[in-house]
Amino acid sequence: MSLSHFTSAVVFAVFASIVFGITQRNSMIEQVKYGLYCFALFVGGVFVAGWVMALIRR
Amino acid sequence: MAKPIAEKSKNAAVLPEYPLTTMAVVAPIVGWLIPGGGHLLLKRYGRGILLMVSVVAMFAIGLGMQGRIYKPNGGDILDILGFVGDVGSGILYFVARIMDWGNIMAANAAADYGKTFLIAAGLLNFIAAADAHHIALGKKP
């Protein structure tokens, strides 16, 4: 199995967000919101880090 | 009137707010050995299945990407930390060791990601086991 860096990061974000959502909040609505928040931060962080590295490389 | 208050505060000091029960000890151990098992034991079926799927999927993807499984006697401090992360997956780690899966050095970037997936799966399972402990104590619904 060979996933690209981006795919790996998104897959990682999905599963980590599920665990964070379930374990860090109490009610179901809060869990879903926190899971989506974590997912957005993970994927957003990937884009930010990607752009920073691209700018450094120039 | 002062006496009952004093007795109340004395009792509060003796009795913990969340008394340690058998289930509060068993649930995190089961949760560590079987990812999501602690939640299933506590009848939180939805959460338990989601945790199980997440941890098992991350572990399987890590192995599929030829990630390395750390051994306890790695020698290097970073190897020991890797072992602590890996062993968090509980029975998945022991099965992988018995079957001799992940006994390879990272030869490419994908294998390095795989190693990270394996460690992250174990660490997330530790969090899930701690959550099962809090549910069993009554700190969390």
Described by its quaternary structure, the protein is heterodimer
> Which regions of chain B are unreliable across 5 or more consecutive residues at pLDDT < 50?
none
Number of helix segments of chain B? 7
Strand content of chain A: under 5%
Q: What is the 3D form of chain B?
A: elongated
Question: Helix- and strand-based class of chain B?
Answer: mainly alpha
Query: What is the arithmetic mean of pLDDT of chain A?
Result: 96
If you average the pLDDT of chain B, what whole number results? 90
For the largest beta-sheet of chain A, the strand count, sense and barrel status come to: none
Low-confidence stretches of chain A: none
User: What structural class do you assign from the helix and strand content of chain A?
Assistant: mainly alpha
Q: Nearest-angstrom radius of gyration of chain A?
A: 14 Å
Largest sheet of chain B: none
Please name the two chains that share the biggest interface, counting residues whose Cβ lies under 8 Å from a Cβ on the partner chain: A-B, 16 and 25 residues
- Kindly state the percentage of residues in helix of chain A: over 70%
Q: Identify the overall geometry of chain A.
A: elongated
What is the number of beta strands of chain B?
Answer: 0
Beta-strand percentage range of chain B: under 5%
Terminal CA distance of chain A reads 32 Å
